[in-house]
Amino acid sequence: MPLNNPLNALLSQQPYVVLDGALATELEARGCNLADSLWSAKVLMENPELIYQVHLDYFRAGAQCAITASYQATPAGFAARGLDEAQSCALIARSVELARQAREAFLKEQPQAAPLLVAGSVGPYGAFLADGAEYRGDYQLSEAAFNAFHRPRVAALLAAGADLLACETLPSLAEARALAALLTEFPAARAWFSFTLRDSEHISDGSPLGEVVEALKDNPQIVALGINCIALEKTTAALSHLHSLTPLPLVVYPNSGEEYDAASKTWRHRSHACHTLEHYLPAWREAGAKLIGGCCRTTPQDIAALARQRSA
User: Fold this and answer.
1) How do strand 164-170 and strand 289-292 relate by DSSP bridges?
2) Hey, what domains does the chain have and what are their CATH numbers?
3) Is 229 annotated as a binding residue?
4) What is the pLDDT of residues 73-99, one digit of tens each?
């Protein structure tokens, strides 16, 4: 791994790094209406203090890495609200500033918790489409078009002081290749890449995980690979397969045990017993997971349970 990998200091001290949990659904739980194509990026415009508070609550729960509220924050998305690129990039930078401020506030309370990281979220082009395409990957752009879309956000996140990038919820090998190429324009940048899945051996566009690893393996700026925003029960088999393909640390942050009903736009408990992140932790660790957290519908309580196990 690269000498300036920001994960090294944490992974040298402990078996895994605790990531934070859901941001958008936690904002919804606190009263935000995110029925909007901008999703959590809408709150950057309307109520940034609440984003700061969610980050702080995750740090207090034991998270060691905050993922910024920039998943759906792009100049293309903000343009629909009349914002130009400079205004959009200022909001993207604000997402980093909020996470950094929360980190500073928490370290005043618990200075021994250092080091803590801020990962700049880089959501896929499919998130901008706001039609569920991040779970299908059924969109086609050239590498140049992908990079024109992602470049302003990546630049803004890094300039604002993100420690690394979370290129997350990626459904498309073509997009992952483009992002890997884009990283070379920012040689000091480091990133993890995490994917949505069709099944335990394929990402959402149908590309085999083996092909994904092969495409990315020679990029030293990619410091971890993994999966996120998938159902809990799909995680372990995919991690085990991925662990057989790459020596990189693996990242996993799935959704809660609930199920999303697209028709009613609501979450519901499954009919069978819902397990928790903590329940899967031993299997994930055995499968090589080193960065572990939660995605949609997970909470500070879920992250606190992971943090307690790390310290046990």
Assistant:
1) unpaired
2) 8-311 (3.20.20.330)
3) yes
4) 999 999 988 899 999 999 999 999 999
